[in-house]
């Protein structure tokens, strides 16, 4: 049978951001979820696991140098991203959110033992828009207010976009915790903007 253009498994993003759902965390912070923003996530995750420039980073904790429980690949210039779809995704995000996403970093959580602890991304601006694309296994993505209070729990699956906005990096912390339930690899693609750094 003749192959149709529409049967392609090539990854693509939904530039209309249809299905976006915004949650007000408080009066000045929000998080938006766009389920299934990317199609063809399996093809993209396989390519990234194979070709990204993964590094093992360290962190100082209580005076001890410890390995970060995940791998990271950083691309300060999005034109050097390891897959062309990531440049297309950056352009779609820039157009939609009015922020020029000109870099990215990619995290690989090899299993349910890998994680990232509570943190806010370091930014130069009090309000920011920080998009995170999930590929691979489903993990919990938690947000909690710096001032204390209940956590908001998201469970993004492959292809889902989570966007933190407003004062989220200043007034809230986010984390991807370890879990007891076995999980395969998860990759997150985090888009960055020089104007926000
Ligand atoms: O992996 C994620 O979903 C979030 C990653 C993150 O917060 C970070 O790398 O700063």
Notable traits:
Jelly Rolls, 197 residues, binds 2-oxoglutaric acid, 15 strands, seven-stranded antiparallel sheet, four-stranded antiparallel sheet, 3 helices, single chain, mainly beta
Secondary structure blueprint with pairings:
Elements: E1 12-13, E2 21-24, E3 29-34, E4 38-39, H1 41-51, E5 58-61, E6 64-67, E7 71-75, H2 84-97, E8 103-109, E9 116-119, E10 128-136, E11 141-145, E12 152-154, E13 161-166, H3 168-171, E14 172-176, E15 186-192
Antiparallel strand pairs: 1-4, 2-3, 3-13, 5-6, 7-8, 8-15, 9-14, 10-13, 10-15, 11-12, 11-14
Bound molecules: 2-oxoglutaric acid.
2-oxoglutaric acid (AKG) binds at residues 107, 116, 121, 132, 141, 174, 176, 188, 190.
Question: Can you walk through the features of this model?
Answer:
This protein has 197 residues and is mainly beta. It has one domain (20-196): Alpha-ketoglutarate-dependent dioxygenase AlkB-like (Jelly Rolls). Helices cover 15% and strands 37% of the residues. It contains three helices and 15 strands. The strands form four sheets. A seven-stranded antiparallel beta sheet has the order 2-3-13-10-15-8-7. A four-stranded antiparallel beta sheet has the order 9-14-11-12. The longest helix has 14 residues, at 84-97. The N and C termini lie far apart (50 Å). The model has no long low-confidence stretch (mean pLDDT 95). The site of 2-oxoglutaric acid has 9 residues, from strand 14 and strand 15.
